[in-house]
Amino acid sequence: MRSSGYYKIKKVTINLVIHLFLIAVAVTCIFPILWMVSSSLKTQATVFRDSSLIPQVLHFENYLRAWNEGGFAVYFFNSIIYTVSVVFGIIIVSSLAAYAFSRLQFPGKNIIFYVFMAAMMIPIPGSFVVLYVLLNKLHLLNSRLGYILCLINVGLSMSIFLLKNFFDKLPRELEDAARIDGCSKLGIWWHVALPFAKPALAVVVVFNALNVWNEYMLALIIFDSKNLMPLQRALMMFRGEFLTNYPLLMAGLTITAFPIIIVYLLMQKYIVKGITSEVVSG
Amino acid sequence: MQQKLKSTLENYAFVLPAVTIFFIFYVIPFIWVFQLGLYDWDGILPTKIFVGMDNFKEIIFQDKIWWQSMLNAGYMTAIALTFQNILAFLLALACDREIRMKNFYRLIFFIPPVLSEVVVGLVWQWILDGNYGLLNSWLAHFGMQNLVHNWLSDPQTALTAVAAVHSWKGFGWGFLLFLAGLQIIPRELYEAARVDGANAWVSFKKITLPMMVPVIIMVAILTILGTMQVFVLINTMTDGGPAYHTEVPVTRIFASMRGSSRFGYACAQGIIFGIILMALSFTQYRLSKKARN
Amino acid sequence: MKVFLRSTVIGLLGCLACGLSGCTPQNSGKGQAKITVWHWMTDRDAVFQKLAKDYEQKTGIKVNFELYAPSDVYSQKVRAAAQGNNLPDIFGILGEKRDFSSFIKAGHILDLTPYMEESKGAWKNKFFDKALAINEFAVGNSYGIKSGIYGVPIDMMTIQMLYNKDLFKELGLNPNKPPQTFSEFLEIGKKIKEKNLQGLVSGWGEVWMIDCFANNYAFNIMGKDKVMATIQGKVSYTDPDWIKVLTLFKEMQESGVLATGLVTMINKKAEQLFANGKAVFAFNGSWCVNVYKGMDPNLNYGAMLPPRANDKLPMSIWGGAGSSFLVNANSRNKEEAVKFLQWFTDKDQQAYLSQMINNLPANKESIKQLPGLLAQFSKDTEYATHPNLWEVSEFPAVIEAWDKGIQSIIIAEKTPEQVAEDVQKVKERELARKRK
Lengths: 282, 293, 436
Hints:
Mean pLDDT of chain C: 83
Largest sheet of chain C: 6 strands, mixed
CATH topology of chain B: MetI-like fold
Shape of chain C: globular
Distance between the termini of chain B: 41 Å
CATH architecture of chain B: Orthogonal Bundle
Structural class of chain C: alpha/beta
Strand content of chain C: 5-15%
Helix content of chain C: 40-55%
Structural class of chain B: mainly alpha
CATH class of chain B: Mainly Alpha
Largest sheet of chain B: 2 strands, antiparallel
Distance between the termini of chain C: 68 Å
Strand order of the largest sheet of chain B: 1-2
Number of domains of chain C: 2
Oligomer: heterotrimer
Number of helices of chain B: 13
Largest interface: A-B, 78 and 82 residues
Low-confidence stretches of chain C: 1-8, 17-30
CATH class of the largest domain in chain C: Alpha Beta
Number of domains of chain B: 1
Shape of chain B: flat
CATH superfamily of chain B: MetI-like
C-alpha cells in the first residue's frame, strides 16, 4: 500500500510533463508567426544578419510601405467581397441541397448525393485552363461573379457533406410542429433547420472562408484587371523577378494572415461546438 | 397525383442550384479533362492529335518519375498518418484532462491550419534554410553542430523536412477532432473502471480507443485526401528538388503542363491521380464500415 | 435571429450587386485607343509605368502595363488566354522556341518582318544581331514557320561567372586574375575547402541554369556542330565527349569548389549569398548587377568567362535577348501596338531602362551610357549563343533528364556514365514517339 504522498508526487510530475509537452508544441506553433512579424520589422540590409527575435529598431513603417507599395487597399477590399459572397453563397446553396438530401424525397436522390461525395475524392488538379475556357464561353471571364461561382463549387461537396450529417439529427418533432403551423418546406428550412445547424454552419463558414482568403492561382489566371484581384496578388509585388524585399514581404504576409486569424478567434467557440457535433454523428 | 408531382418538383428545386453549379464547374471540366487525356497536345496549337490510351499507357508503364512522385506523396501521407495524427491524439489526450489552459491551447494549435500554404512555405523555408536558417544557427549555438543539415537541399532530409512542415500545418485539425471525440466519452465509464481497479493504461485500451474508432477513421480519410494533394507547399519550399526528391503528383502534372507543354499528358496524369485517390478513399471507407461492426 | 437573417440577405444582395457590376467586360475601341501589355517583370513594373505615362503625354494613347507574377503563373495565364482568344495587345511568352512556334502556328503572333524591314530595315538595324535572333525564324527552319521576325527584344542579357575580389585576396589569389582554365578553377576549389568558405553559387535548383552551364562546356569541349548533331539524334549522349562534360561536375564537387546546397538553390538565394560576401564565385546573368547593388552597393566583384576546359575550342556563354515582347495578331490595336514598341525600343527609352534597372539594352545605340561592369558583360556578348538561336531544339523530357541527372552527379547519387545512359534512354523514347 503506497502512501498518499507517493500518489501526490506522481500526479504533480505527470501534470508537469504534460504541461511541458503542451507548451513545447504551442511554442513551435507560435514561433514561426513571431519570426514572420519580427522579420517584418527589420530592414533589407539586416534581415539576414540579425537573428534576434526582437530587433533593436522596430521599423513599423514597413507595414505602411507594404500597404502602399503593394496597393493593398483594393486587394483587401476584393478579398473581403469574395470571402463574404462565397460564404453566403455556399451557405444558401449547400444547406438547401443538404436539407433536401436529408429530409426530402425525390427519385435519384442517392445517386446525386454519391456523385457529390465522389467529387470530394476525385480532384482535378490544374483544371485552370479548362475553367478559363469555360468561363470565357459563359462570358464570365474577368468578372467577380465568375470567380465567386468557381469558388462556391470548390467548397460545395464538403459543405453539403457536413450539413447533411447535421440535418440527419434534426428532431422530427420540431419539423412536424412547424408543418402543423403551416410552414412550407422552404419555411421549415429557414426557420427550423438552419438555426438548429448553427454549429455546423460555423464550420462551413470557417472552412470556406479559409479557402477563399488563401486562394491565388485561379484569381491570377481568371482576372485581367488589377482592380478585381484578391489579396494574395499583392504578395507577388514583393517577390520580385530578381529582387525580393524580405521585410516588406513578411509585412505583407502578416497583413494577409491577420484578418483570417481574427475571424478564427471570433468564431472559435462555434467551431468547436460544430466539430463536436460532427464527431458525435460520426 | 398532381400533389405528388408538385411536391417532387419542389424537392428538386432545393438541389437545383447546387446541382447546376456542380454540373457546370465540375462535371463539364471533368469530362473535358478526360477527353483531353486522349490527345497529344501542347496546349497552344489549334490542332490536336488523337492518341487514344497512349498517354495513359505511358504514364502507367514508362513514367518512372510519376510513380516516384506517388511514392513521395505516399511517404508524406504515411508520416502524416503516424507522426501528425499521433501527436494530435496525444495533445488531445493531454488537453482532455487539463481544464484550465484548454481553451488557450485549443486556440494556439489551430493557428497553423488557418495560415495559407504560401505563408507557411515561405516562413519555414527561411527557418530551415541551410545557410541563413534559424534552425541551423540554433543547433550550432547549442553545440549540436553535427546535426546541422541543409534541410531542404539534402536529398536525405528534403522530403522529411517538407513532410514535417506539412504535419505542423495540419495537426490542428486532427487535434480538434480528437478532442471533440474524447469529450463525448461519458466520465462515468472512467469512474466505473477505476472503481473496478483498472489503471490508466487499461481504461485507455478498453474505453477510450474503442469509442474513438469512428473519429480516428474520419481523421485518417481526411489526412490521406489532404496530404496526397499537397502542392503549394512543395512549390514554395523546394519546387520538387533536389533531383526529383520532393516531387509529388500535382507538381508533376503542372510540370507536364508548363514545362514540357504536354497538356494532354497532364490531363491523363490528373485522371489517373483521381482514380487512385478514389480507390484509396473507398478502401478506407470500406475498412471503416467493417471496423464499426 | 431575425436581425441576423435580414442582414444576411442584405449582405448577399449587396455582394451580388457588386459582383454583377464588375461583370461586364470593358469595351475597347470606344474613344481613344488603349494598349494593354501583360508582363511578368515585377522589378520593372514601376519603370514600365513611368514609360507608359511618358508615351501617353507624347501621343495621347494610354498604355496599360499589367503585371502577373510569378512567371510560371504568367505563362499559364498566357496559354489559357490563347485558348480563349483573349490575349492582350502586347505580351511575352516564357518558353522555348517550340512553344513560340506553336503560338505562331495558332495565329496569335503578328509577323513583324514588314515593320522591321521598312525604310531599309531602320528598326531592325537598331538591335544587336543576337538580341533579334531569338525572335527570328530562319529560312528553312525545322519548326515549319515562315521565315521572319516575330518579336521585339527589350533588353539583352548574358550569363557569366562572377567572382568576389575581396575573398580572392583572402585566399591569397590575385583579385585581378580570375582563373582561365578549368584546372586552375579546381585548384582554387581546394583552397576554398581548406578555408571553409563557400565556392560557386548559382540557381541550380532551377534546372535551366544547370543546362546553361553544362551547355557552355559542351560547346567548349566538342564544338557546336557535334552538340547540334546530338540533338538531331545522330550522336549518342553516351559519347565520351558528353561523359567528359558530365565528369566536370563530378570533379567540381570533389574539389570543393561548389557551395553546399547548390542543387536545390534557387537563383535568388544564390544572389543573396554572393551579395552578402558569402560565396567566392557566382554563375548568374547580367541582371545580377542590379540585384547585387540593391543588396550591397559596396560589393567588390568582377566578371569572368567560365574557365575553359578545352584550349582548342572557344568558350561559349549564353546570351541574347533577355525579354521580348510580341504583338497579338488578333488585336484591334495592332498598328498602335507596333508603333508603341518602336518608341519603347528607341535609344533614349532603352538607355533609361538600362540605367534604372541596370540591365543591358537591346538597342546598339544605347551602349555608351553603361556603367563599368555592364560594359564588361556587353563586351562578352561576342561569345554568346542561346538555344533559341539554334536550328534544332532538344526534347524537353531529355533536357529535364539531363539536368536532373547532373543534380544526381553533384549529390553523388549517380555516376556520369549512368546519367549518360539514362539520358540516352529518354532520348530514344522521345525519338520513337516522334516517329509514330
